[in-house]
Structure formats: C-alpha cells, structure tokens
Amino acid sequence: MKNLNDEILNKYIDGELDHKTVNEVNELLLKSEEYKTKLQLLQSVHDELKKIKEDETSLDFTSKVMSKIKKKVKTGAKDKYFILSISTIFILTSLAIIIYIFNALIKSVSTNSSSINMWDNYINFITANLQLLRSFLSPNNISIIGSIFSFGIIIIGYIFFENLRTSKRRLSRQS
Amino acid sequence: MKDITDIEIIESIKKGNQSDFSLLIDRHKNKAFSLLKRLLKDKMEAEEVLQDCFLKAFNSLNSFRNESKFSTWFYKIVYNTALTRLSAKKRKVENEMVSIDQMFHLKSDSDYRMTEAKDVSEFLHKAIEQLPENYISIIYMFYLDGMNCEEIAEIMNTTVNNVKVMLYRGRNILRELLEKNNYAKEIL
Questions:
Q1: CA–CA separation, B172 vs A46, rounded Å?
Q2: DSSP, residue by residue, A110-169
Q3: Which end of chain B has the smaller Cβ count within 10 Å, N or C?
Q4: Model confidence over A18-62: pLDDT tens digits?
Q5: Residues B184, A38: Cα–Cα separation, whole Å
Q6: Which residues contact A129 (CB under 8 A, 6 or more apart)?
Q7: Chain A residue closest to B170 (CA)?
Q8: A9, A42 in Cβ contact below 8 A?
Q9: pLDDT category, A173, cuts 50, 70, 90?
Q10: A65 vs chain B: nearest CA distance in angstroms?
Q11: What's the predicted TM-score (pTM) here?
Q12: Which ipTM value was assigned to this complex?
C-alpha cells in the first residue's frame, strides 16, 4: 500500500480492516504527518458524532397518540357494526323475497299439477305477480313508497355529508 | 418493563391489549423524533409526522412479521413518511452522492454559520444539518440508534455498500469543513 485514501481511513476507524492492512496503515501514518492529521480529524468527527444526544418529544406525546388510536378503534368498531347491520337487513330481505317466490312457485305448481306444460305454470305465475305489482303501485301506495324512498335519500345524504366533513378535517390537519 | 422485548409487547397488542402500544411509543419516540427533527427542520412538524408514523405502525401491526426488528420496521415507516413529506414540500431528495455544486453550496453555507458556533461540537452539529437528507438519516441511524449498515440499508431500500459510501462521504465532508474553518488546530 502506497497511499491512504479516505475509504481506508474510514474503514480503519470502523475497525473493518484486516490485521495485515492495519499494520500497513500504521506504518504509513508514522511516515506521513498529512495522513496522521487527516486521521485525527476524522477520528474527532467520529467521536463527536457518537456524542449526538436524542431530542425529546413533548411530555403529552404518548397520551396524544394513544387517544388518537382509541378514537380510531372506536370509530372502526362503529363502522363495522353499521356495515354488519346493513348487510344483515339486505340478506334477510333477499332471503324473504326468495322464500316468497319459491313458496308461490310451489303453490302454483301443485294447484295446476294436471297441467302438461311447465311453462304455462311459470307464465301464469309471472302474470299473477305483475297484476300484484300493478295493484301495489296504485296512487295511494306510490306516495308511501315515495316517502320511504325520500327518507332513505335523506339518511344517505347525511352519511355522505358526515364522511365529507371528516375527510375535510383530516385534510386540514395534514396541510 | 425494560426486560420485555418489542416482540413480546407486539404479541400482547395483537391479543387485544392495545394500551401496551404506549410502551412501544415510549421506547422509540425520542430517537425517531431526533431524526425527523433534523430531516424536516421543524420541531412541530416532526412531532406531527411522528404521530402519523405511530398511527400507521399501529394500523399495520398485523402485517409485522418477526423477520426483522421492530425498530427497523418502524424506521422504514418513519423514513418513508419523512421523504413523502419532504417531496410534498417540493424539497429535493438526494439519491446517491453529493454533487460538486452541492458541496460548494454546503461549504459556503457553513462558512457563514461558522461564526455562530462556540466550539467544534456545536460547529459539527450545525454542519450535519446542512447535509443532504439521506446523509443525515444515515448518520443519525448509525450513531444515535446504533444501527448497523445492513439495517440502515434495509430501511433506506439500498445496498449496504451504498450506505457505507454515504457514511464515509458524510464524515469526510464534516472533516473537510473542520479543516476549512480552522478547527484543526483546536483538535490536534
């Protein structure tokens, strides 16, 4: 080894050189005052960096984070219950409709068992249900359906508005 | 409490003892805060970002596998969040090496600040703040957190060799600054 570059000096400080190279470096350091100065300065930088002290957060930092976590866990559970209840209602309603359709089908098939063509049964069933639907959509019922529908829209609007407000709050906190 | 490992605390949190997360916060907050404060150069912002980091860590605690230390995993979150914040502020994030222009800028800036420093220690601490973000990160993780180059490489998503090169370059820059600002006589 003829020269000591910065990399070797750094490795020398970190103790990453093998025994043979360390001896070579020591020899060069004894011969050259320039290398010696370089190493001493580098060593003092290394020693000073070791003295870096950690900064401290504000005293209530942990409690602040924990309260945020508790809040999030609570709202998470609330959201979970909300989704669970909505999906339960949806599943139960769908099940009721399916059961009703099957029940009606079975009834119509059993009453018209003499009938040869199965398609006739289905067509009769659909016609009967269409008539039922027509009577269901009578002017009196329409107003009831309309009010239920409006109520649903109001609830959806409220949820949407709440979500918008929460995300706005989050954004303002981030900026 | 000191005897309990991070992994044991995490197991307890996963079992439902969410309040145990405060133990992890207390353990890692100050070191992570020190790094964020140097990177973002704003105490309030550093604390705010650190809060977000802990929330992110809590939310994705289930994805934490015991393949690495919690500190390495958490520092990945801290480092990436800090970088995102910095890029959001349209600051330039250094990738690999310091360019000649930046070195020049660094030196002239530090020359100016030198008059404010009382001693070598204070001068160096001020000089560190002038270094590019990835150099500051490596110096803080290496010296303050006692991490090795492998862990730092994992956090910064780079090679061990790159980390070593940047660490050596960081030290060399600081050494050159000491020489340039006539601190050599004081030290030798």
A1: 10
A2: HHTTT-S-HHHHHHHHHHHHHHHHHHHTSHHHHHHHHHHHHHHHHHHHHHHHHHHHHHHH
A3: N
A4: 999 999 999 999 988 889 999 999 999 999 999 988 999 999 999
A5: 9
A6: A104
A7: A45
A8: yes
A9: low
A10: 6
A11: 0.68
A12: 0.80
- Round the average pLDDT of chain A to a whole number and report it: 83
Q: Could you tell me the two tokens for A20?
A: 């043979």
Residue A9 to chain B, least CA–CA distance (Å): 9
- Regions of chain B where pLDDT drops below 50: 93, 100-101, 104, 107, 109-113
Q: Do residues A57 and B22 lie in contact, with contact meaning Cβ atoms separated by under 8 Å?
A: no
What residue has token string 């197991």? B11
Query: What's the start-to-end Cα distance of chain A, in Å?
Result: 56
Of the candidates B51, B56, B29, B54, the one whose C-alpha atom is nearest the C-alpha of residue A173 is: B51
Tens-digit pLDDT profile for residues A112-122? 555 556 677 77
> CB of B58 within 8 Å of any CB in chain A?
yes
